[in-house]
Hints:
Blueprint: H1 3-18, E1 33-40, E2 46-53, H2 58-76, H3 87-108, E3 109-113, E4 116-117, E5 120-121, H4 126-135, H5 137-148, E6 155-156, E7 166-167
Amino acid sequence: MTTAQNTALNTAQTIASVGFDISNFTAPAEQVTFKVPVLFDDDGEPTHGFIIVGKNSDEHREEWAKIRAEGRQRSANRRTAIDESKIEGAEKVVGLIDDNNKRLAIAVTVGWYGFTSAGAPAPFNKALAKAAFDKYPTWQDRVSYAMDEDANFLKLSSQASSTTPATSSAD
């Protein structure tokens, strides 16, 4: 079984276990965040990390739309079209893919925890988050993997047991 199949199965299991009321399809979307740890203490407890929203968020949808529009525009213009049959073109495409992945990771990153400046909690700054992803690419990978996991962002309500929605482990 592939990772994608496992992910789909896990998401389906999550939905089935708590119930998914169809009123969720038309209810106003509520932003659900998820903490992605990147640094840990000696006991393995997370101390620092990023707070992200998922692929269904406005942040992701808006950035993804920009990326797609730029790609279409680039391919429609013969002067900026990339010839992937040559190594230079292939390398350029790989660079664009990497840049687009970083753009999406930055777009969904809406906060952080544990980071300080002069001993005080540092206010979130997307430019510094990008700098962190540049310096520590594995942090960007963690954000990207977490963003791809639907179950991290599902906010499900029980069908009959309560009017208070159950939440994922996003808190």
